[in-house]
Every structure is written in C-alpha cells, then in structure tokens.
Write a structure and sequence with these properties.
Rossmann fold; binds nicotinamide-adenine-dinucleotide; 2 domains; alpha/beta; single chain; 13 helices; 19 strands; 17% strand; seven-stranded mixed sheet; eight-stranded mixed sheet
Length: 393
Amino acid sequence: MKVAVVKESAPGERRVAVVPETVPRLTQAGLEVLVEQGAGDGAWFPDSAYSKAGASIVKTDDLYATADVILTVTRPDETQVGRLLAGQTVIGMLSPLIEPALAATLAGKGVTAISLDGLPRTLTRTQAMDALSSQANVAGYKATLIAAGAYGRFFPLLITAAGTARPAKFLVLGTGIAGLQAIGTARRLGAQVSGYDVRPASKGEVESLGATFIELTAVSDGAGQGGYARELTAEERQAQQAELTAHIARHDVVITTAQVPGRRPPLLVTEDAVKAMAAGSVIVDMGASALGGNVAGSVPGETVVTENGVTIIGAQNLPSSVPTAASNAYSRNISALLLSMVTDGALVIDPADEVQAGVVVAHDGQVVHPAVAKLLRPADRTGGADDVDRAGN
Ligand code: NAD
C-alpha cells in the first residue's frame, strides 16, 4: 500500500503530517512511503532526510495518481480535493463538524475520509493518536512565549544593580491541555502564575504545577461530559464574567483557552475587564475565532491595542508557528492511528471498532459519521456545529 505525505495547502501552514523519523515505522509495517517534493520544508525537514529514511520523493501529479492513502495535517484545499481519486483514503484533521460539506464532497468522489478530530480521547489505546492534545500542548507553550514577547517588562523577579523588577502576574483562564502547558511555560520563565477553570478537577492539576487556582463562587461545578466543560447558563456566565473581572484587573498577562465542545468559545474577558487592566497588560486569546473568542475585541490573527493600552492578541494556528515540534508529535499521532487500521499491509475499515467509529467520516460513497451526516441534513441543521459535541453525540 502506498502512503503519501502531501505538502500542506493552507496559507502559512508550516507543519507536515509525517516527519522522517517516523518513516521507518511505516515501511517496517510493509507500507511504501511517498513524500511530495518540499512537503517538510516549512518544518525544516528537507527531501533528502525523507529519502535517507526510506521514503520516495515524488512530484505532485505522481503522488495523487498513485497513492492509496494520503496523509495531511489540515483539510485539503479545493485543488487537492479535485485531484483525489475514487478508492483513495485521506487521513488528517479534517474538522468535519465545522466543515461537513468537505465530508460530503469526499464521499461523493468515493474517497474514504478519516479525521483525527473525532478520536475518542479517553481510551488508553488512543493516547498515542491524540493530535488534539499534542497540538494544544504546542499551542499553550507558544501562547506564553507570544505573551512574553509582547509584554514590556520581565516575567521573572530580577534583582540587578539597576533595580528590582517584580515578577509578572500571569493568569490562565481555561486550564485544559493548552492552559496547563501555558502555566508550565510561564512558571519556567519565572512569572507568578494563577489558573482558573470551570471544571473543579482542574484545581489539583494547576496546583501540581506550582500555580494558584482561583475559585469563584459564581459557578460551583462546570464539568460536563467526557472530562470537558459544560455550557454555562446565561446567569452563570454573567456572574462568572463579573467575578473574573476583579481577578483579571490585578494581572499583567492573561491567556485564555476556554472551549466547550460543539459550542462557541465562552466570553470570559469582557470589555469592562479589559478596561480595568493597567496599560501595558497583555492578553492572548487562544479561543479567538470568526464567531468570537474568549476576549471582547479579539480578532483572530491580529494584535489590537486598546485605548487604555492593553494589547489583545488573537491567536491563530499557533502549532504551525512551532512547526518542527508540532510535526514531530502529529507524525506520531497520525502514524499510530494509521498503523492501528492496517492489517497485512492493507487498510481495513471496521465501523464496529470504537476508535474507527469516531474517526471514519466518509466511506463507500457515504458520510458514515452520524454527527456529520446530521449536519448535512437540512431539516436537522440547527446552526452548524452548535448542536453536536466533539465526540459526535
Ligand atoms: P478544551 O480545549 O475543550 O477546553 C479548554 C479548557 O477550557 C477546558 O479545561 C475547559 O474546562 C475550559 N473551559 C470551558 N468553558 C470554560 C469557562 N466558561 N470558564 C473557564 N474555563 C472553561 O479542553 P481540552 O484541553 O481539550 O481538555 C479538557 C479536559 O479533557 C482536560 O481535563 C483533559 O485532561 C481532558 N482530556 C483527557 C484525555 C484523556 O483522558 N486522555 C484526553 C484529552 C483531554
């Protein structure tokens, strides 16, 4: 079976789905690995490293004409989709709950679509395949570095002959995978770190990193299903925002990561909270999206400086800005998933398998993932991904 690694098509995307180090794992399983010319350039993996590892470097046309399985990081663009042939399989982070139309197009072409976003994340055997976690980890690290770069003072306590600098007061709102990595990175830089999350279980994780956990009276238990947060009621949201404002005002740097599966990111830092911060403060909104983010006034991919001197950075595709580390991790994730589906050198689709039920989106000409299929039925559509959770229920 020929497995092909494509050059990513999304603007500015620097990651690559498979790194040279992983190639032998695939070839040892009886797979032939093709790599599109220059696929690893953005992550500093030259073609020569892939050749040395046992892959063949191929031209784009040859890749699409001969591959059985195509491995990608993000969704293929229109041109790439146009090149796909019936019987081929695409594996990547295809975001089918955000863009169900792509799943329908691939199904219509007779292409099997497998998306790492749908992976059941709590099973022991899926830990090595969890690309959402590995990329969130990279993003959390980079968010702290971006904040440090935009902040006009030091993060650590510094005592020098020219005076003493107090440590930065650093707050993370939403302490899941990305938030905990942001906390760990800020601690290593010497900041004075606090964290907050609606899930009470998060307290121990925050404290184990040496940070202070902020407890609010507004929401006693915001835990939802599967270890994720639930959507708060309107009253809870308002009370949470009001109570958070006082905490936000006494911090120099705030990083927000809050997400609720299948819903718009919750607003945690209101306009009033931004106004209450001192000039020179920095906010990085990792929830920034076209639908709105965790911070009032944040714009994805842009840096906004408010009238009162607060810098609000709308983060966008942070993993791509740490391309080598992000690709290394993703490569292990996608290879583990692929190899779990290969028997005797061939891909075996088994809808009865718990992992495959989560990741196989289109197969045999049909959109087989129930939650994606539901989004494609006009009568059932109630506002895009707003009515499904990440596991597709
Ligand atoms: P996520 O990206 O969905 O959300 C980020 C964080 O935002 C979460 O911690 C969430 O609780 C928080 N949040 C949501 N709404 C909020 C609000 N209104 N106010 C404050 N915080 C809010 O989450 P994630 O990082 O993907 O993972 C969340 C949890 O799932 C973690 O506990 C993680 O350990 C767990 N998880 C477990 C496994 C596993 O069992 N192997 C795998 C992946 C994730």
